[in-house]
Amino acid sequence: MARLTLPTDEATIRSLRVGDFVELSGRVITGRDAAHHWLVKAFRQEVAPYLKDSVIYHVGPVVRKNPDGTYTFVAAGPTTSAREEPYQADVIGMYGVRGVIGKGGMGAKTLEGLKKHGAVYFHAIGGAAQVLAQCVKRVETVFMLEEFGVPEALWVIEVEDFPVVVTMDAHGNSLHREIEGQSGERLKSLLGLSA
Which residues does the UniProt record annotate as the domain Fe-S hydro-lyase tartrate dehydratase beta-type catalytic (predicted)? Predict the structure, then answer.
């Protein structure tokens, strides 16, 4: 398993291939539907330095506020990434994002954005939210907490040894597209529809 420290550079990201297992350490920023819409509606100068050469994580975390005012992630499982398909390629290009963490993969527009700008899609383990939360070592800051609420806010976190698999790379390869094609052919065969 490879180890990758964030933020990173384009050359390192372009060296990754579909099927690579990676442990991420360093700065990650979370974002879901409201965050992506907000990020593309106008360039957000205050958030841009956190996104540059880093990774955005599709997650709706459960977060505890501690007595000293700090925050602790209690659950941090990936959410379905397809909802961000209309925005993701634009967010990658506008902010220089080098990776996206989520589950379920993304579509053709995002795949083209990964290739054009030098980024990858990392698939995280679904159903392991409490285990993944243990990889979140610190909450650095948060944006839009009052406006969007805890799950939709943009949390800037520091992770350590966060396990992911590259399922879409910067060379136009998508494990999701490949499996969909193979499954479709298998279904046709089972239904007696193949030539």
Answer: 9-178
